[in-house]
Amino acid sequence: MVKSITATICKNTLPPRYYSAIPGKDFNEDYYKHFYSQLNYNQMLYRIVLQRSTQKVLRWAQWSRVDLCLVNEMGLPSCQNISANIQVQLSCKLLTRRNDSFVEDARYQVDTQPLQDDEWGYDGQRLANTIGFDQSNRGGLQFRIRPSANDKLDPRSHNVYLYIFQSHAERDSLTASKVLPLVIGPLVINDHKDHSGFDPFSVPSMWSDVVSKNLAAQPAAAITSVNEGFWDQKQETNRSYRAYPFRCGQDERYILLEENWRSGMPGKIWDGALVITDIFAKRLAKDPSFLDNVHIMDLSAGLGCFGVAISFIYQILRRHNSVSRHGTPPSVTLTDLQEALPLIRRNYQLNMPPAKTLDQNNQQQQSLQAVSHPFVSITPLRWGMQCDSQKVTAWKPIDYIIASDVLYDPSKTSALLQTLIHLSSPGVTTVYLVYKKRALKREEEEAFFMGCRQYFDLSVMPEYPNETGLCRDESSVDGSTWLGCDIENTSTPHSIQATQFGVVVYLMKRR
């Protein structure tokens, strides 16, 4: 359900601009610092977001600039004393759509360098030798694309996505900040020039005076002029996504989920959704039949993170695992308010496009698609409205309800509880209530859970597998796969202290 709190946003086409320090006030400054620190409470995972639009059309060996910011799920930078210690090294690679999923595009290499001073930079932008963030919430990088050693240039225009992530060595460090990667795109590689005799280590003439042909050269000098039309606003983009890497056999695939922070609460992925999606995905990786013939519901789905990701993973695993093709695919229902549904549908279509029309020679493939594709429904649902709930449960009882990041507003807890009661069936339904303390007082939390105990048996998700095989792995980082870790590595060595994001998963079994 769309949450009532909305983010403060810019009304123009650019993403919101974030500030690296607490807004200064001449009076009662301590109050503002206390208020700001309260908003940062329990915020341990930071997201890379675009600080401003970036160039959409790319050309070979041409440096492009990406200005970035580090914020938490609230859209706020870290406190000033924490910002001074931030150092995040970033890497990049390209993703492209191939067949039924997004994969790394091995035809190209991405070179990166630290941001260079230019006339487009914000006043006070701190420049450093770090490709990423150095003692500031604001940073970025410059990148250029060139073909891999064994590949020739493709003169045709085609779309790619730039995947920006924390470098592996730094990400695996216990002391490093945990940073959620960012995907930008689609970007268009478009260069219709004559490439005969092209040297992939050279650069366009426009940059010849500032960039060395040697890749090991020092960063380029300041850029004071560009060719006319180079930075045309029509060639900019601020479309951004989160990527969930998923390994199937030898292939690593990516689920892309578009965010739209300007739409407020439902336009972003919250910490709880990251955690519960990772838990179910790791369970599916072990046994795809886990969700056979199950009706699972993503309540207040936001941008569709859980429902879209689980549907995609189930489909891919079923298609590549002959042992698990005998069961009936699950039914997945995603609900939210009417105004939030377009973004859910876009993310579903982005990752699970309609099956192509197949001729008689492809009947076997068509049959395989039919038995592996979950039945997905995207429908509006208002909390407290029993008529909406009855439409969802009319054709089949719900086995699992995923209620992630829904407990936040004391004025809506009664309607939320009513909705959970309306949707659940005694002895059948289990609710996975994913909760992170944000705004509720302790007495408000206790009042909600006291009401739940009248209808549900409550427990906390165990550290070890229960009868469903689902568990909260306390030895690993919350949502580790989102950070770029291998989904098959379900835990880290016990010597590594767990890093948690303040998310608790409650199991509520309907009596």
Automatic annotation (TrEMBL):
InterPro entries: Methyltransf_16 (IPR019410), SAM-dependent_MTases_sf (IPR029063). This is Methyltransferase-domain-containing protein. It comes from the Eukaryota. It comes from Umbelopsis ramanniana AG. Pfam families: Methyltransf_16 (PF10294). PANTHER family: HEPATOCELLULAR CARCINOMA-ASSOCIATED ANTIGEN.
